[in-house]
Specification:
By secondary structure, the protein is mainly alpha-helical. Helix content is 53%, strand content 0%.
Length: 68
């Protein structure tokens, strides 16, 4: 049977996160706001993105090199 850490053991990483959250309690709310801006999209926003993707014009792999 392997060695298991004591039930009261707290890793350095866990302690670090707890300390940060204790010093900055607003951090969790800021994370939620940031996620909403960058990741959480409504179906309407996703549909608009798909429509824009469909309208893209095909482009050659390397446009800065003149093919003569």
């Amino acid at each position: 049977m392997g060695m298991l850490p004591a039930r009261h053991y707290v890793s350095e990483h866990t302690q670090f996160i707890r300390d940060v959250l204790e010093k900055k309690p607003q951090l969790a709310e800021e994370q939620r706001k940031g996620r909403a801006i960058w990741w959480d999209k409504s179906p309407r926003e996703l549909d608009a993105g798909r429509t824009m993707d469909e309208g893209k014009v095909a482009q050659k792999p390397y446009v800065y090199f003149s093919q003569r």
